[in-house]
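User: Methionyl-tRNA formyltransferase, Undibacterium fentianense:
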Amino acid sequence: MKVIFAGTPEFAATALDAILAAGFEVPLVLTQPDRPAGRGLQLQASAVKQLAIKHHIPVAQPISLKLDGKHPNIAAEAHELLKATPHDVIVVAAYGLILPSSILSIPRLGCLNIHGSLLPRWRGAAPIHRAIEAGDAETGITIMQMELGLDTGPMLLKQAIPIQERDNTGSLHDKLANLGGKMIVEALQKLRLGPLPATVQPDQGVCYAAKISKDEALLNFDLNASVLERKIRAFNPFPAAHANIDGLSIKIWRADVLPIAPSSHSIQNGQILEVNAEGILIACDNGKSVLRVLELQKPGGKRLPVKDFLQGFPLRVGQHFTV
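Assistant: Predicted structure for Methionyl-tRNA formyltransferase:
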């Protein structure tokens, strides 16, 4: 079986690596154009492109696949390349471009998508972030037959994993990437023997995982500490939760939630209640909960546990973190 692969970030590269390791022939890889990255903003190839080059696989990087879009000539070239490249199926994982119907209809066995959620929950761009942020107990991988709708296609394989108490987007991403690689290999092996049973997605339980914006990562201490703790994990490693103090934006990488004793004193949201080597205690939700910050980073500095952070950036009781 010949597999054209379309994907861009590390999540997709893990799947491509698994497909190659399983012995499937990959005659072509589609990935996003090189992007500026790093302090020098040098053009950098995607993780998928780097892996494809390592395995001497031809790579195409069209900026559009829509024949009626802004770049019809580029899209037409991509269509002709796909038609001219012998293959049976296209596998898509975090590609970043929408596949129009004119592309979906090209492969003999259609297009399969590796999606990082238990569909129909968390359709869209940021399923891993949103599952953590929402406090979901589990997530997983769905292998889906692609159609025109956004992550709406019939489900071919589905497997759940628990979201652990300390999972952040980075750790959960790695678990799901490895699971996705195993599941797409299983799906392709079964597809070689015949069509896979497909389950139509239910109408109930549909929700949308909107793309993450940097503005969301600014912590609002009017919220409950448990909500903030989930946001901190959801936005680790990107875009990194942060809060302002003394005119500086401090990134907060790790925290937990402590019970709070009733107090007769007026407590303001964002107020520092205690500072010690174990953590910085911050009042939330009108004094109803406390966030204990465990790892921080000042501008231009390194991520540090609170004990080391305080040596170079002392904080005191009564100071306020603000939006």
